[in-house]
Amino acid sequence: GALFGAFNDQAVSDEASDSSDATATATVTGPPQTLRVLLAEDNSVNQVYARSLLEKHGHAVTVVSDGHRAVSEAVSGRHDLVLMDIQMPRLDGLTATRQIREYEQKRHVARKIPIVALTAYAMPGDRERCLQAGMDGYVAKPIRPERLYAVIDSLTHLNETTSPSSSTSSPNIETP
Ligand code: MN
Prior knowledge:
Layout: H1 2-16, H2 21-27, E1 36-40, H3 44-56, E2 60-64, H4 67-74, E3 81-85, H5 93-106, E4 115-119, H6 126-133, E5 137-140, H7 145-156
Parallel strand pairs: 1-2, 1-3, 3-4, 4-5
Manganese (II) ion binds at residues 42-43, 85, 87-88.
């Protein structure tokens, strides 16, 4: 219907314009935080799109396209945050996440790397499955830029200052 069409138009136009920045800057007091982001995603179109969104905010992006490489990179200490596709060849995102968390636990890693799920399907129970695997946040595909930025922001500010915007009970998880 008309509403659905308008929603899609909005999502697409955000990619080309800077209009989505307005809401993000309202609650952030410090300078924008630039991160080293590991993008684990096997679809080349999604790789290009997610990378462009991240680089637009000044983040440095490393792309891997299967779960095994996602694990080895995530535990390397070279990244600040992981965006993890759920459906990937060789090792799916949930299993990769469990392996990352197991590694961190064995090595007594003090600061666990934030992992955000990217998933194309939004079924009841997906959110719980992602949390149980050890993920910290959830972004549905197709990715809405403002949603991606909000999740990253809420996760990466938790360890430093308590942001007023993250006062709700579960700011990182949204059921689409
Ligand atoms: Mn995939």
